[in-house]
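Wait, mind explaining this?

_____
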Amino acid sequence: MPTATVPRRLSPAAFFRDMGYAPHPGQWAIHHSTAHRRVVACGVRWGKTLCAAMEGLCAAMQPKERSIGWVVAPTYDLADKVYRELIVLAAEHLRHRIITLKESERRLVLRNLAGGVSEIRGKSADNPVSLLGEGLDWVIVDEAARMKPLIWESHLSQRLLDRHGWALLISTPRGKGWYYDLFRRGQGLDPDYQSWNHPSWTNPYVSAELIEQERDRLPERVFKQEYGGEFQEGAGQVFRYVRESATGAWQEPKPREYYYAGLDLAKVEDYSVVCIVNRNREVVFADRFHRLDWSVQVNRIRAAADRYHRARLLVDSTGAGEPVFESLRRAGCNALAYPFTARSKAALVDNLALMFEQRLITLPRADLWPAGIDELESFEFSVTDAGNVKTGAPSGVHDDCVVALGLAAWQVRPSRPVPMVYV
């Protein structure tokens, strides 16, 4: 009786057909490539996530005794985009091949076509220690442009050496950093790399008319990055000229000077930040702390405000901030409430962005206030999966310094006269 033979290599075309997946021409080019390092820099809704998930599943089903692949992103939330797509596809079409599925560990184990074991893990780059360990057959890096270069250079690329593994790095462009350098290597400069760059409207399954409607809703530079897939320096940044504005230093309180303070209160793992500016819109003081009792925080905030001549303190009084605001008032702080809504926070951000555009604000040097500078430069425009435009810190990045500075700067915004009050 003849024994059944196992194919030496799974045909991607046959596998995709069985999975009900019909790649568009741009996706097919990626699937057909044999480059060990593939870099995909395309606009939102182009189909990067589905393409990557199918590529990962196809690799996992290749006939081998054992294989292991990772899906990695800057945070678990972002890693889940590709990993969850992969899980859904496996549950729908490959349920009979699932050996283990552990949601808490983001771990899927499949029986491949040779009867061997293929493992897929979802990983976050915000904990580099978790990226140490065994060699990999493949890795998919999602939102690669948001990842620190050290993660790729010192943690991921090295995992591929033992098994001669491949990497697929997908992302919407974001500035011209390390990811842009990898993209350029794939444009004929390195035979081991291949790269692709396409705007969102080249996906035939997405309405080009709907994408075009977004052009009027976004700054041109953001539209070109998010939908056009173009690499543009600082295109997604809300606050430009941050480094150019960081020429100042911390200042001691001056006689007969009036100061304005902004306070963003910690929520769970966030930081409480108090930021103080003078009438010339110079940041003279900032304090950042977390995991302190509210009573300790109130005393610390009051001490800072009192030191700067009872600086007027604008406080985010939303939710948990309301009782703290009342405590500050009872402690004698010159505190005013600024309830946060989508509209009021947008106004705060717009005002701060305008100050940077018009060079009306001075920050301490980057070596004096690294947390503040990093948060301001990371604060970005982004487009949600539903197509909505929002501003905020990337997933896994704090925005407490941004909010505190915005609250302080709101009180000295150019559109209103600054009260000449001395203490």
Remarks:
- Confidence is low (pLDDT under 50) at residues 416-423.
